Amino acid sequence: MFAYSLNLKQNRMKNSKLLLVLFFTASLACNQEKKVEYPPFSARQVPNKGEKAIVHGKISNLHVYPHVNEVVLTLPDFSLTGEMHLSPIDSTGEFYFEIYPVVPREFSLTPIEDRLMIAPGDTLYIEHDFSDITNTRFSGSAGVLNQQIARFRNHYLGRYSFSYELPYMDYKEACDQQLEETFDKLEQFQKEHNTSESFNLWADKQVRLDYYDALFHYPTQHFLRTKEDLTEKEAYYAFLPDVEKTIDEDMILISYFKVMKWYNIRKGFGLDPIPRTQEKPFSVDEAMELYYSVPGNNFFSQFSLSTYLSLWTKSNSTKEIEGHEDRLGELITHPFLRATLQNEYNRIRDFKDNPVIYSDAVMGYNRQEVVGTNFNPDDSANVVKHLIAEYPDKVLYVDVWATWCSPCIKEMPHSVVLHEEFEGRPVEFVYLCMGGGHEQWQETIQKIKLPGIHVYLSESEWQDQMKRFNIKGIPYYLLFNKEGVLVDFGHHLRASIPETKTAIEELLEQ
Fold it and tell me: Which residue pairs, CB below 8 angstroms and at least 24 apart, start in 264-273?
């Protein structure tokens, strides 16, 4: 019965979707009719930005949140942070952005709204009151769409809060029921507010993506709690073909990136609750065959393959792209996907070519030239800077962890092995604990018999590390050469992978 009712809702959305495709993709028609020839990634060409969009506005009653002095606009992409733009809030409460979205695209605007839409050529003016945050007003060419999105999201949170201890199919049935009820509420909202075609398409996608994310997230959480395997895999994952239809080029939503990551994990490692670890990761050739395989939705295939490639760019590696860029040039041709990967490629190559510039900015060594003074009151919390000064002429391998982080602790026996292999050489292993209790911290170190330099961070110190090194999750690693320059960073520098040992050895030989 549910499948039938969902199909009816899909049919109701079909006509509105076709209209919006015509509205939103007129600027891309030439790209669809005539194949675009891109230069190789290694040419490091700056991608064509396309038409400019303007987002601006005014915030009233600033005194309610006196510590807020800037607005952050974030466009989602394959980087860890997204494409971030900052605008100060002036004395009258006004802020202003000029951005290049490339395609119709969702973005967040902190601290105003976390889901807004913009397209090339759009203008969006926002009136926001810190004393009445649920009644933001929008105008400009993108005003109607965003006003309707904000109104809908005041009532719809997209949460699926069912217990992870529910049996597999009971959980899915509960999610199915909630999805159907949400579509009923959405249909009523559309009638009451005479919603635009662009909103109808956005809402249909967002509701479905929230549902997919809940179903993807549940199996691992259930298995961790109950150790029960999923026996009805085909029935549970019957929604996968719907995922392949929902993620298309009509508009780029923030949720695309999270749902596609889940999709790739399940497709690459099977439909088990806990993905089985391969002896070696997929090669790029294997990934191209595996992920570029969805019939009828070429954009989805491109997005899936780009998501795989982003695993490497997040690890500050470009060799996977460089070794296959002729083939990738034929497969990844969508303007948004191509531009996003090219920007990531350029960022990594710029960093690799001259890590000192980035390192000095992160560590605050360029403060004199930027703000005219070397004095920095935040330096007391800059633990890593003090450690570099304390251990000159040594390679520093920094592990950021917490006692409650099981993936962090799982890596530590491998760190013990690294200690032994580099014993007597100019390498220091540093462990910065971000929390979990001082007593538990000491017990964990003693239990693993983990040597090295151990620091239990104060609240101000761990907040400084998170902000300074853009740490979004742990374990997280930093690697400094003997000159104190940050040469690599990220989740990928785990002690258990051979590449980490190789990276340390290369720094010792310099």
Answer: 264/291, 264/304, 264/307, 264/308, 266/216, 266/237, 266/240, 267/291, 267/304, 271/230, 271/233, 271/236, 271/237, 272/219, 272/229, 272/230, 273/219, 273/220, 273/222, 273/223, 273/229, 273/230
53-89 pLDDT tens trace: 999 999 999 999 999 999 999 999 998 889 999 999 9
User: pLDDT per residue over 128-181, tens digit each?
Assistant: 999 998 899 999 999 999 999 999 998 898 899 999 999 999 999 999 999 999
Instruction: Tell me the whole-structure pTM to 2 decimals.
Output: 0.83
Q: DSSP of 64-132, one letter per residue?
A: GSTT--EEEEEE--SSSS-EEEEEE--TTSEEEEEE--SSSEEEEEETTEEEEEE-TT-EEEEEEETT-
Site of tokens 């895999």:
233
> Which residue, chain included where needed, has tokens 């392949």?
244
- Joined together, the tokens standing for residue 230 give 């999923």
Sign of CA dihedral 228, 233, 237, 238: negative
Which is it for strands 476-480 and 486-490: parallel, antiparallel or unpaired?
Answer: antiparallel
Q: Tell me the DSSP string of 408-440.
A: HHHHHHHHHHHHHHTTTSSEEEEEEE--S-HHH
| Angle CA 328–333–336, to nearest 5 | 115
Give first-to-last CA distance, the chain, whole Å. Answer: 67
Cβ atoms of 336 and 252 within 8 Å: the answer is yes
- CA neighbor of 346 nearest in space, from 70, 13, 78, 50: 78
Separation CA 71–CA 66 (nearest Å): 13
Q: Is 366 helix (H, G, I), strand (E, B) or coil?
A: coil
